[in-house]
Amino acid sequence: MKTVEIFEGPRAKTYDESIRLWCPDYDAIQGLLPSLLGYHLGINNDKNVLVVGSGTGAEIVNLLQFSDTWKITGVDPSPEMIVQAETKLRSSDNYELVTGLVTDLPLEQKWDAALSILVFHFLPDDGSKLHLLKNIAQRLKKGAPLLLVDIFGEGQSFEYNLSLLHAFLLSKRFEPEMVEGGIGHIRKSLFPISQERLTELLKEAGFGEPHMFTQSLIFGGWVATQLS
Ligand SMILES: C[S@@+](CC[C@H](N)C(=O)[O-])C[C@H]1O[C@@H](n2cnc3c(N)ncnc32)[C@H](O)[C@@H]1O
What we know:
- By secondary structure, the protein is an alpha/beta fold.
- It has a single domain, classed as Vaccinia Virus protein VP39 (Rossmann fold, 3-Layer(aba) Sandwich).
- Helix content is 44%, strand content 18%.
- Strand 6 and strand 7 form a beta hairpin.
- Helix 7 runs antiparallel to helix 8.
- It starts with 9 loop residues before the first helix and ends with a strand.
- Keywords: Methyltransferase, Transferase.
- GO terms for molecular function: methyltransferase activity.
- InterPro entries: Methyltransf_12, SAM-dependent_MTases_sf.
- This is Class I SAM-dependent methyltransferase.
């Protein structure tokens, strides 16, 4: 099992820039998340939100701007990503950052919602994805929504969307070698799964049928509810 993908060095330092290159709708997708969560939780209610793989803090910044009453816990195993998030969040209250994994969070504490944005495609479907989904489910209240955004798909459909991303990047006049290298990395080193397989894993972990709320090229977003 592979339980963690560490972001460090140049990969951590350049993350905020490079994610907007490789995920062209990154800001649009991030911008949807607070209102989607508000639909489920209500904006002015005291709610605890868990952000799994909080990275450099984009989700937390947006959630704190959206609601004065939500309390956010961000968890991420990469210290260099946590430091960047801390710098952005310095002037805010209502959040805590944990350097570690979901398994480091107490089982007694139950959150009202969770987000996992661009994390699961780093984990193989050999029990690793399921392990993390189960650990999130165990820390959520019954009925809590999980918002998941990841690279997804398989076969020809995935290859077509990857080709579109490739063409988009070349059209922006990025260095062809850099584009080829990144597309090759996505193809060889990441672990996208089909929506059908994601549904199976979510159900096995204790969530209901996921609802897809967005798709942009190889990126998809779903909301699923913790059932027990
Ligand atoms: C692509 S970044 C996404 C960061 C942020 N969610 C965003 O959308 O900008 C992936 C993050 O997941 C973290 N990560 C890797 N494996 C993890 C795991 N098993 N549990 C939680 N976070 C993990 C990495 O350290 C990294 O910060």
